[in-house]
Amino acid sequence: MADEPRIPAPPTVPEAAQIRRANYLSLAALIAKRLLIAAVLVATPVAADRLLGLDSPFVMLLTAAGVGVFVLTVHRLIYGIRVTQCARVLRHYPLEFHPRVIMKRERWTQYGDVFEVKVTTRGQHGAPLMLAVNAAGRRRWPEGVEGGAWLAGDLPFGGVLVVPGSNAMLFLKPADWDKTARKREEAGPERTARAQRAKLNSRTKHAVMMRSSA
After folding, report:
1. Which sequence spans correspond to the domains of the chain?
2. Smallest Cα–Cα separation from 160: which of 179, 173, 142?
3. Spatial CA neighbour of 204 closest among 120, 133, 103, 136
4. How far is Cα 105 from Cα 102, in angstroms, rounded to an integer?
5. 150-209 pLDDT, tens per residue?
């Protein structure tokens, strides 16, 4: 009799505090990098004028570029950062490993890249299509998700996807809020109350996926 294939064991469950710390540090590094670029762009024309006597309009364009980088950084910090919201979800939901996470496609928005993903569960069918954004503001799709990821949350409401190893976080919401309404209605008072405590019970439209008010 042939041996049945063994299901590989999930990786070790990461600590929520470690995940939050790693993402806050990632966010701080990203902001520091952008602010440094803005400072260099603003300071270069001043230095060029004082040291070399240059007063070219092309040099002054660097100042405008530096101010633009600063404004965009603040704009994305206010509307496009989901670390705090993800941290709240991690306080109310345990992490469960899902071996299959499929990224269907990605779309660019002014607040960050929005990914369409499916998080499948063994033995269950009809996983809803989800929208995902990088919690710490980075645009790229994190490496290592294809081998599975940790999920904290309740898919009809939303949740957080954590990448094993890197601790990168993705904030999740149903791609079609109305289509998943019935599943939320059938969730029961306990699940609904938990989603409310984690602030996952509100609608999120694709166009404002990254906004803090979504």
Report:
1. 16-79, 83-208
2. 173
3. 133
4. 9
5. 999 999 999 999 988 888 899 999 988 888 899 999 999 999 999 999 999 887 654 445
Q: Letter for the amino acid at 27?
A: L
Altogether, the residues listed in the chain come to a count of 214
Please say if the pLDDT value at position 98 is more than 50: yes
Nearest-angstrom CA–CA distance, 98 and 121:
6
Residue type, position 108, single letter: W
Number of H helices, E strands in the chain: 5, 7
> Token match 């960050």: residue?
112
Cβ neighbours of 71 (radius 10 Å)? 11
Residues 6+ apart with CB under 8 A from 120: 98, 99, 100, 101, 102, 127
- Tokens 């938990």 correspond to 194
Beta bridge partners of 149: 98
Secondary structure class of 110 (helix, strand, coil): coil
CA distance 186 to 192: 9
Residue 193 phi, psi (nearest 5): -65, -40
Q: How far apart are CA 82 and CA 95, in angstroms?
A: 18
Query: Which residues lie closer than 8 Å to 137 by C-beta, 6 or more apart?
Result: 27, 30, 76, 77, 80, 81, 112
